[in-house]
Write a structure and sequence with these properties.
The chain is an all-alpha fold. It is built from 3 helices and no strands.
Length: 93
């Protein structure tokens, strides 16, 4: 029994550990990646969201100018505004 423990340790180190590493490297390489088409779609969606935010701000300014009692409805605010996302996007590119 005393000779079995070092054999198990050596097998684990030289066979088991490399097998485990190569197994997950293979899984990582097979993982789906973002395609050029997906990246173009994300860019289009980003620019669309940017334009929509500008339009909503314009409408809010017009309504506020026409109606001094206007206040925005208490809608939940997103965690990051489009302008913050714009800053992160510009840093990426």
């Amino acid at each position: 029994m005393g000779e079995l423990i070092p054999v198990i340790a050596i097998v684990s180190i030289f066979i088991g550990l490399p097998w485990l590493i190569f197994h997950y490297v293979t899984k990582w390489k097979q993982a789906p990646k973002i395609t050029d088409e997906d990246e173009k779609l994300l860019d289009e969606l980003y620019h669309f969201a940017r334009r929509m935010e500008e339009r909503v701000q314009t409408v809010e300014r017009i309504v506020a100018a026409d109606n001094p009692d206007f206040r925005q409805l208490s809608a939940p605010t997103p965690s990051a505004s489009v302008s913050e996302i714009d800053y992160q996007y510009s840093r990426r590119n």
